[in-house]
Amino acid sequence: MAQMNASAMNWFGGETYLGAPRAERHLGLGQAGGGASDFSFSKALVSMLGEDRSTPKWPS
User: Fold this and answer.
1) How many Cα atoms sit within 13 Å of 5 on the Cβ side?
2) How far is CA 34 from CA 13, 21, 28, 41, 49, in A?
3) pTM over 0.85
């Protein structure tokens, strides 16, 4: 049986980032989502993508 290297692939099937941490990106996501005391992933998405792209369009 072939062994898989667990660090070679992320949960979504893409490559795993093995470089140094990128603190500025994590901080930006936190600020976009309302900060540490009031974080909301929904707020972060709207802040980064805009209301039009972050709200699903369900068929009628």
Assistant:
1) 5
2) 30, 22, 10, 9, 15
3) no
